[in-house]
């Protein structure tokens, strides 16, 4: 198989991107994630794959909960903040409205939708690790909010963001 064949397939899918946040040992971190999906109906479970090179991944290893955020399509700036900077070097939450969710996990107020989930398991998948989450709290902006019925930011929308984690 040619790498271009699978690249063409994934380009057609154009899934949403997510900001995943974690808190543990008095620290907080967050990163932009392109690999995530509901992975079970009963019980409802969701998987997010975090890069082993990412500071958020290392903090998530000590966390009990993670928050998963969908960003509105018009908030490329938030995607760039969480995707192009390293949490080990900068406080990505500085100046942003956020609050503590279950387990102290940071929840971004400006997200289109979010949920927090208890980490059910972790599965190595190569250069990423799948964190399987049991959702425990969720919120979606009402249609009357400023975000209205906006679409979520997609992988195509965020394709210009260069990962900020160390190489």
TrEMBL record:
Q: Note the SMART domains from the entry.
A: Flavin_Reduct
Q: Does the keyword Coiled coil apply?
A: no
Q: Tell me, what is one Gene Ontology molecular-function annotation carried by this entry?
A: FMN binding
| Keywords of this entry | Oxidoreductase
Domain of life, per the record? Bacteria
Q: Is Oxidoreductase found in the keyword set?
A: yes
Flavin reductase like domain residues are: 12-148
Name of the molecule in the record? Flavin reductase
Organism ancestry? Bacteria, Bacillati, Actinomycetota, Actinomycetes, Kitasatosporales
